[in-house]
Design a protein that fits this description.
four-stranded antiparallel beta sheet; 122 residues; mainly beta
Length: 122
């Protein structure tokens, strides 16, 4: 089985930045497409960003394009989400997830972390 552990969440002011990290167990990290999702109270779990196995392909939700950047370091078994120009509407629990093939749908991802809270104040 695969274990994913997120870190880096916290409380920031609007316009600020956070960098989330997701550390994965196992020696097959490079075989997984990795994604970030977020869920606010009363809302569904929404796609934020995804990155291919080698890092050559990325995709972002329209709401975060130009502000968020997903990256990965396969040697460190870690995927990152750099979040800049944060807005109050970005407040949510952020989840790291993995699967074997490309997807932007939460239901299709196989492995999930426990999430990390991001709160952006006005």
């Amino acid at each position: 089985q695969v274990q994913l552990v997120e870190s880096g969440g916290g409380l920031v002011e609007a316009g600020g930045s956070l960098r989330l990290s997701c550390a994965a167990s196992g020696r097959t990290f490079s075989s997984y497409v990795m994604g970030w999702f977020r869920q606010a109270p009363g809302k569904e779990r929404d796609f934020v960003a995804a990155i291919s196995r080698s890092g050559g392909r990325t995709d972002y939700a329209d709401s975060v394009k130009g502000r968020f950047t997903i990256s990965r370091d396969n040697a460190q078994n870690t995927v990152y989400l750099q979040m800049n120009s944060l807005k109050p509407e970005d407040s949510a629990v952020y989840y790291c997830a993995g699967r074997g093939t490309w997807s932007s749908k939460a239901a299709e991802y196989e492995y999930w972390g426990q999430g990390t809270q991001v709160t952006v104040s006005s």
